[in-house]
Write a structure and sequence with these properties.
The complex is a heterodimer. By secondary structure, chain A is mostly beta strands. Chain A has strands at 3-7, 11-12, 18-25, 34-41, 47-53, 59-61, 69-74, 79-84, 93-101, 108-112, 116-120. Chain A is globular, with a radius of gyration of 14 Å. In chain B, strand 5 and strand 6 (54-55) form a beta hairpin. Classes of the chains: A mainly beta, B mainly beta.
Chain lengths: 122, 107
């Protein structure tokens, strides 16, 4: 059974960098065939895809966040991470990590972490 | 960006009734790239349907998906108490976007 678990600070000050890590169990990030994504959900329930990383290190980010986002991978620890810089209160959300199936022609998120609430406040 | 608009925003039905949820895209979506998720309070979204009409593993056959182009539908044939939740559609394209959700509540 594949499991994903987010970890990181629940409170970040404005203008600072939000950093989260997702630890994957039950599957190896290095096995390929999947994108490893970050998605966030605002308090009003809207879902926003942030970006993904492939085991090789290649990334693709939501154009609306691209200037502030960095996603990295540590295959030795079977983890991938998110950094979001220059945060404001608008970045307050529940952050999920998720596995995206990329078996052509289907693309979808089949496993999600439980989510972690990050609040941006001084 | 391909904007997904779901309707209705809230759907009030009784157990045993049929639910029909709509997802309309601002640009055409390949059927292979349209998925539906269910989210219950305090939980992560759960995959229900992928490829517009294929049920994910373990999803009961009362859930079905259909549609093509810009109009897609999730149908729950006979509502069970555990089906009352929020439902999201999602598309894969140059980016990934989600609809704003339909809340299915007990009437």
């Amino acid at each position: 059974q594949v499991q994903l678990q987010e970890s990181g600070p629940g409170l970040v000050k404005p203008s600072q960098t939000l950093s989260l890590t997702c630890t994957v169990s039950g599957d190896s990030i290095s096995s390929g065939g999947y994108y490893w994504s970050w998605i966030r959900q605002y308090p009003g329930k809207g879902l926003e895809w942030i970006g993904y990383i492939y085991y090789s290190g290649s990334t693709y980010y939501n154009p609306s966040l691209k200037s502030r986002v960095t996603i990295s991978v540590d295959t030795s620890k079977n983890q991938f991470s998110l950094k979001l810089s220059s945060v404001t209160a608008a970045d307050t959300a529940v952050y999920y990590c998720a596995r995206e199936v990329t078996v052509d022609p289907n693309y979808y998120f089949d496993y999600w972490g439980q989510g972690t609430l990050v609040t941006v406040s001084s | 960006e391909n904007v997904l608009t779901q309707s209705p925003g809230t759907l009030s039905l009784s157990p045993g009734e049929r639910a029909t949820l709509s997802c309309r895209a601002s640009q055409s979506v390949s059927s292979s790239f349209l998925a539906w998720y269910q989210q219950k309070s305090g939980q992560a979204p759960r995959l229900l349907i992928y490829g517009a009409s294929s049920r994910a593993t373990g999803i009961p056959d009362r859930f079905s998906g259909s549609g093509s182009g810009t109009d897609f539908t999730l149908t729950i044939s006979r509502l069970e108490p555990e089906d009352f939740a929020v439902y999201y559609c999602q598309q894969y394209g140059s980016s990934r976007t989600f609809g704003q959700g339909t809340k299915l509540e007990i009437k």
